[in-house]
Write a structure and sequence with these properties.
The protein is elongated. The chain has one domain. It has two helices and no strands. By secondary structure, the protein is an all-alpha fold.
């Protein structure tokens, strides 16, 4: 496990926001006209993008396959992957 408290806090926040987005997406599949739910989905989506950017700028990429930018040196092995926490 990583000892950096900021790293762990950021990963946990990303997991919470991702969970909310999954739930909102499921809800919106059956309630597409719920304006508040759409607004909430867009707000949490923007928050997730922001948190991912913060994480990647401080700790390296979250995803492989070209979805996340890589700096030089890449830092692929410097931090544990999110599922290793």
């Amino acid at each position: 496990m990583h000892d950096n408290e900021e790293y762990i806090a950021l990963i946990c926040e990303l997991q919470k926001v991702s969970f909310v987005l999954v739930e909102l997406q499921l809800y919106l599949a059956t309630h597409p006209d719920d304006e508040k739910a759409v607004t909430d989905f867009n707000r949490f989506s923007a928050l997730q993008m922001h948190l991912k950017h913060v994480h990647e700028s401080k700790f390296g990429p979250l995803l492989q396959y070209g979805y996340s930018p890589v700096n030089y040196p890449s830092g692929w092995v410097e931090n544990p992957w999110p599922w290793e926490l």
